[in-house]
Amino acid sequence: MDKWNILNDEVKGSFHFFNDYTNLDKTSKGYGLSSDHSLRPQVASIASTGFALTAWVIGHRRRWLSDEEALQRVKGTLITLRDHAAHYKGFFAHFLDRETGQRHRLCEYSTIDTALCVNGIITADQYFKNEEIHTLATSIIDRIDWAFIVFEKDNKTLFRMAYNPDPKGSYVNSNNPGYIFQWDMAAEQKMMYFLAADRLPLDISKKLYDGFRKEKLSYKGHQVIVNPSGNLFAYHFAEAWFDSERYLDPTGIDWFENTKQAALANRQFCMDHQKEYPSYQKLWGLSASDGPKGYIVCGASPSEHPPYHSGTISIYSALSSFPYTPKESEAMMFELYFNHPQTWGKYGFIDSLNLDTPTPWFSRKIIGIDKGCSMIMIENHMNRFIWDLYHTSPIIKKAMSDLGFQERKTHERD
């Protein structure tokens, strides 16, 4: 089994996850909504649904879906998102009942999860070039009130992270319902600046992109504009659709190189801690994933805060690094595939593992956003398909131009 066969099987396995964990009951108000994870299929994630829309595009292109079925899935999903999925000022609830589209418990209305969903919508719209899909997509995108989450703090223009009007809702201090946190760091939110640029005054859009901090720190020679805790997912989710290999930011920041250095630093950090966790000698990928005691958020240096790690390896993060670190990601993939067969199953690689617990632990949970991110990144590594497609969108083209991103020639990269 060579590299390309494994990668193709991984993409196909990811597609089958979305195929099996998406509501495809055409009589249901929740048609097209995708499960947050495999052990709680009745709860949908709005971000997972965005990844599923991208999976239908990949599946159709690879001939795993017929024209009729692919169009049905995309149109049906967009109708659900327009008519039934819970939202506030256009921002979707983070979690939804997969059968009804109603808000799950008192979860927050999430900016980043809405943006991930919208990226899937844009991808499907650009791929199918279907009038009905375009009309549905436009209606969903246009109703998002980006101005609602913009505010000023310490002479910076920032996005709020989420909104929850319920005193006992998710992430809410019981005495202060409403806005929750802010995007004031370099993390996974970069696509939000592109999506909002079409709906906000140009000066506000530029101030928003300038507003989040871009602190550079180094680890063993790897200089990185860091996210606070050094989690790999925060680099990958921002660039699953955004083609950072093609563009420099308005100030010349090379986000592609930044993610590459973050991944290499993550691997080096693991190697440097192999006495504490022997599996780190060959395995790397410290991020957010399933863990032996539930969801866990791990990270590596460089980071703003001392990174937490416990031996749990987020497999999808190493796979998502393929466009940036092909050699290192391939070595990790081969180590798992050939020496740890417990990590491979119907949906390709499992989410995570920890070989340094008293009894080696292997995740039984497939998480939609994790599977979706590695699926897209592997597709980009193999053929740049999603990156190229996403950037045909007039919304994204205009945003890149308005914000001052510069396209570079392919020969400019080593």
Tell how many strands the DSSP assignment holds: 19
State Rg. Answer: 20 Å
CATH domain class name of one domain: Mainly Alpha
Largest sheet geometry: 4 strands, antiparallel
Low-confidence stretches: none
- Name the CATH homologous superfamily of one domain: Glycoside hydrolase 144 (GH144)
Q: Helical residue percent?
A: 40-55%
What CATH calls the topology of one domain is: Glycosyltransferase
Which percent range describes the beta-strand content? 5-15%
Ends apart, CA distance between termini? 29 Å
Q: Helix count, per DSSP?
A: 14
Residue-averaged pLDDT:
96
SSE topology sketch:
Layout: H1 3-20, E1 43-45, H2 46-61, H3 67-83, E2 87-88, E3 91-92, E4 95-97, E5 109-110, H4 111-128, H5 131-142, E6 150-153, E7 156-164, E8 178-183, H6 190-197, H7 202-211, E9 216-219, E10 222-225, H8 233-239, E11 247-248, H9 255-272, E12 288-291, E13 294-297, E14 313-314, H10 315-320, H11 326-339, E15 344-345, E16 348-349, E17 352-354, E18 361-362, H12 368-383, H13 385-390, H14 394-403, E19 406-407
Antiparallel strand pairs: 1-4, 2-3, 5-7, 6-7, 7-8, 9-10, 11-19, 12-13, 14-17, 15-16, 17-18
